[in-house]
Amino acid sequence: xxxxxxxxxxxxxxxxxxxxxxxxxxxxxxxxxxxxxxxxxxxxxxxxxxxxxxxxxxxxxxxxxxxxxxxxxxxxxxxxxxxxxxxxxxxxxxxxxxxxxxxxxxxxxxxxxxxxxxxxxxxxxxxxxxxxxxxxxxxxxxxxxxxxxxxxxxxxxxxxxxxxxxxxxxxxxxxxxxxxxxxxxxxxxxxxxxxxxxxxxxxxxxxxxxxxxxxxxxxxxxxxxxxxxxxxxxxxxxxxxxxxxxxxxxxxxxxxxxxxxxxxxxxxxxxxxxxxxxxxxxxxxxxxxx
Length: 290
Fold this sequence. Notes:
The chain has helices at residues 4-15, 18-25, 29-43, 59-87, 99-104, 106-116, 129-138, 182-185, 199-207, 221-229, 239-242, 273-289; strands spanning 48-51, 54-57, 90-97, 119-126, 143-148, 156-169, 180-181, 189-193, 213-218, 235-238, 249-255, 259-266. The protein is of the alpha/beta class. Strands 3, 4, 5, 6, 7, 10, 11 and 12 form an eight-stranded mixed sheet that branches. Strands 1-2 form a two-stranded antiparallel ribbon. Strand 8 (189-193), helix 9 and strand 9 form a beta-alpha-beta unit.
């Protein structure tokens, strides 16, 4: 649709003069007259009455001018929205994440981002590492928080080194020591996540050349903590996940030390301007807040 001709018509009505409308729009008077004639021919209605004192709407013009104004307004809003989307100040970002980031980072991160860019909306997908990798591979999300190395091979930006910690029931003998050796943890009943989402701990155990006595497996991070709290066994978990969740458990560093690298990965599809802006924002947010 050629909206420009409606903008010329609206401006002519606003100024009540072809001459003044032409001056403001940078057109000739004959050009404005030609455009108005084209609009009248398109609608097959007389819309403007031209007189020596200016231009006035006909009854037919009075009836259609609200619709013309709406077309012009919608076109202006469309251009504005497109400009915002290109600049990354509007749009929607689909983010995949796992529990610790969803709980301890994203609420504050999104709040501060939306204070700067209130027209950006978020859709959150929460799952384990396996879920996040699948969403990235499928393109179901634009961005995803992952633990490197991510299995999808997507481009990612490292954000944070998150230490792995031993968690023990209150009163456990190993809690009397400031540091827990992985070899000693391997002798205790062990509670772990499912194989598909337990990459961090597997790497730490493999590096220490130990094999643990796994008694319970679950997909839920907080279920692991609850079972440790009840004395069903011990576990190793990322420190970010344990923030604010240390009631009824003891938390100790492990030896040899181990950590996971939290990163923000882009989908295999090209991320939009708002998503790219969020990646840069997240890097600075983690430096300041994490």
